[in-house]
């Protein structure tokens, strides 16, 4: 009980801030008479949410599947790219700058092409999510692999370990914190990318 009260007290400032913000938002909309399609009032949002409640489970499920499938595909591609680039210094020097440059291309420019190539189904949306999520995982994994303990690697090599054994026992365990950091970022991006991909498909349709 004490822990609950302590948690409630610690969250109270944030709750009050949100409440004040919502009240100000409602008052601004009411006083300025802003059109609802520009800035709907919180009460209108709650009303619309309650009216469309029966439609939400199906659509939430579809968006969740798109995010999960794209997230999984992005992870697989990212790990394959990271391990491939780590295996060869020449490949890393040749392709890693291109990997970084690929992120300068806005996803809004790529999504219409995916829609043209793969239609209006789930596949282009999953691919959009995968394109957005693979980058932080790949970059963090490469960084983790490259920053492995060199002394530990030399020790294993002096004991006759193979490249695969060194990767298994030293480099991958060392890279796991970097990988999980990338996964946390990618998990956030996956939901955002799924929503954006659905919006783009709707606009093109």
Explain this structure.
- With 205 residues, the chain is an all-alpha fold.
- The protein folds into two domains: 1-51, no CATH class; 55-204, MetI-like fold (Orthogonal Bundle).
- The chain contains eight helices and no strands.
- The chain has helices at residues 2-32, 42-51, 56-87, 89-102, 107-118, 122-146, 150-158, 163-204.
- Helix 7 (150-158) packs across helix 8.
- It starts with a helix and ends with a helix.
At the first level of CATH, the class of the largest domain is: Mainly Alpha
Which of globular, elongated, flat, extended, rod-shaped describes the shape?
A: extended
CATH topology of the largest domain, by name, is: MetI-like fold
How much of the sequence is in beta strands? under 5%
SS element count, helices: 8
Unreliable residue stretches: none
Main β sheet profile: none
Count structural domains: 2
CATH superfamily of the largest domain: MetI-like
Order of helices and strands: HHHHHHHH
Radius of gyration: 23 Å
Structural class based on helices, strands and sheet pairing: mainly alpha
CATH architecture of the largest domain: Orthogonal Bundle
Q: Got a strand count?
A: 0
Mean pLDDT: 83
> Approximately how much helix is present in the residues?
over 70%
Quick overview:
This protein is mainly α.
Key traits:
2 domains; mainly alpha; MetI-like fold; 205 residues
Write the SSE topology:
Blueprint: H1 2-32, H2 42-51, H3 56-87, H4 89-102, H5 107-118, H6 122-146, H7 150-158, H8 163-204
């Amino acid at each position: 009980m004490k822990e609950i009260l302590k948690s409630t007290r610690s969250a109270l400032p944030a709750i009050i801030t949100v409440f004040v913000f919502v009240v100000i938002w409602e008052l601004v909309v009411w006083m300025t008479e802003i059109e609802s399609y520009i800035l709907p009032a919180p009460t209108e949002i709650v009303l619309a949410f309650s009216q469309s409640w029966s439609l939400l489970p199906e659509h939430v499920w579809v968006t969740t599947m798109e995010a999960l499938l794209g997230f999984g595909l992005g992870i697989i591609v990212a790990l394959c790219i990271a391990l491939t680039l780590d295996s060869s210094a020449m490949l890393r020097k040749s392709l890693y700058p291109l990997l970084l440059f690929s992120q300068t291309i806005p996803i809004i420019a790529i999504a219409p092409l995916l829609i043209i190539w793969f239609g209006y189904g789930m596949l282009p949306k999953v691919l959009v999510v995968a394109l957005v999520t693979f980058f932080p995982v790949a970059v963090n994994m490469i960084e983790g692999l490259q920053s492995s303990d060199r002394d530990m690697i030399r020790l294993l090599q002096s004991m006759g370990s193979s490249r695969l054994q060194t990767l298994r026992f030293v480099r991958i365990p060392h890279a796991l914190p970097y990988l999980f950091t990338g996964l946390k970022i990618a998990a956030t991006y996956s939901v955002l990318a799924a929503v954006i991909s659905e919006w783009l498909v709707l606009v093109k349709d």
